[in-house]
Amino acid sequence: xxxxxxxxxxxxxxxxxxxxxxxxxxxxxGDKIDLEVLMLGGEGGTLKVGAPLVDGAKVKAEIVEHxxxxxxxxxxxxxRQNYRRKNGHRQDLMLVKIxxxxx
Length: 103
Hints:
With 103 residues, the protein is mainly β. The chain is built from no helices and 9 strands.
């Protein structure tokens, strides 16, 4: 059985025991969370599509750890204007393990 979930403005296709790297949205390591289910698929080709969510379907997950993404450099420049700006960014992420898909 698989599900398509939505978290952090992105969609992920997950199955039981998958480990995902998603954007951090609160909670501590070891906490259990429920994720929104957009689509649910099972054995035999059965498919439930939500509008926008599947009623009664839940994906239970556990936060494994908090991490940070790679450093991204932002550089802005306007030619002949002596205008240069350099910035950096690292996204806060968390590893999530899918425990159960019910629905």
